[in-house]
């Protein structure tokens, strides 16, 4: 019987709010350009089309309120996003309306972005991985279990940096809703319990600097506070 050469890396686990439960993370899917005003500020075309999807490694999840400033960038951007957590596997491709039954919880997170490297990647038609999938690029709050409350279309999503409101939107402003995104993903990937989906960011993305304090809120559901290390 062969042995592992070394101990496998631990799976990141998110706590649930007011429950003795943990959420072991399997994959992180992200939706790009899911708010029209943000697509406009990024200079992206506004036709609805198909969702823009990219991924981060599962261990990009960051749970500590102290956020390291990543290497390799001079333009680290915040993107506040609702995070949807899947508690069940999909059997295969989902039909419309079947996605929400997979969801076990919601949180709020930051899709941190090396905007300077993303601009280069877009310009050269290269992949976004170095811009999006770096270590600690996915700070996420504790999750609210769906049995304890779930967001509604008029739920507000916002981000404050140093006490100043930077981003704000209602979930109904999302171009693609959660069910639509899960149906779309299920036709491309095998959705599993443990998958997280970052649902896209409103307008107002901007740089985070060392020393900045941030507070991300999904109203009535979850919040995430932290500070960027120098
Ligand atoms: Mn994003």
If you had to describe this structure to a student in words, what would you say it looks like?
With 230 residues, the protein is mainly β. It has a single domain, classed as Fumarylacetoacetate hydrolase, domain 2 (Alpha-Beta Complex), CATH 3.90.850.10. It contains four helices and 18 strands. Strand 1 and strand 2 form a beta hairpin. It starts with 12 loop residues before the first strand and ends with a strand.
Number of helical regions: 4
User: How would you spell out the order of helices and strands?
Assistant: EEEHEEEEEEEHHEEEEHEEEE
* Count of domain modules: 1
Largest sheet: 6 strands, mixed
Taken from the alpha-carbon principal axes, the silhouette is: globular
Residue stretches low in confidence (pLDDT < 50, at least 5 long) are none
| C-alpha termini separation | 47 Å
Look at the structure and name the CATH superfamily.
Answer: Fumarylacetoacetase-like, C-terminal domain
Structural class: mainly beta
Integer-rounded radius of gyration? 17 Å
Q: Fraction of residues in helices?
A: 10-25%
Fill in the CATH topology. Fumarylacetoacetate hydrolase, domain 2
Ligands (ions, cofactors included): manganese (II) ion
- CATH top-level class: Alpha Beta
Per CATH, the architecture is: Alpha-Beta Complex
Please list the strands of the largest sheet in the order they lie side by side. 4-3-15-8-9-12
Identify the quaternary structure here.
single chain
Strand segment tally: 18
Fraction in beta strands: 25-35%
Average pLDDT figure = 96
């Amino acid at each position: 019987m062969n042995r592992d050469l070394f101990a496998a890396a631990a799976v990141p686990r998110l706590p649930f709010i007011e429950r003795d439960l943990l959420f072991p993370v399997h994959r992180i899917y992200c939706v790009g350009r899911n708010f029209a005003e943000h697509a406009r500020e990024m200079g992206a075309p506004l036709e609805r089309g198909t969702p823009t999807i990219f991924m981060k490694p599962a261990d990009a999840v960051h749970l500590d309120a102290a956020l390291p400033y990543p290497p390799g960038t001079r333009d680290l951007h915040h993107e506040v996003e609702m995070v949807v957590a899947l508690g069940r596997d999909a059997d295969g491709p989902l039909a419309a309306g079947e996605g929400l039954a997979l969801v076990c919880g919601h949180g709020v997170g930051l899709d941190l972005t090396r905007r300077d490297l993303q601009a280069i990647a877009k310009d050269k038609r290269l992949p976004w991985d170095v811009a999006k999938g770096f270590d600690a690029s996915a700070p996420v709050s504790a999750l609210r279990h769906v049995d304890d409350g779930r967001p509604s279309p008029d739920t507000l999503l916002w981000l404050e940096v140093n006490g100043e409101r930077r981003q704000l939107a209602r979930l109904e402003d999302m171009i693609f809703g959660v069910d639509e995104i899960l149906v779309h993903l299920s036709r491309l990937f095998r959705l599993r319990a443990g998958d997280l989906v970052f649902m896209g960011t409103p307008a107002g993305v901007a740089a985070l600097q060392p020393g900045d304090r941030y507070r991300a809120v999904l109203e009535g559901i979850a919040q995430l506070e932290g500070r960027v290390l120098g």
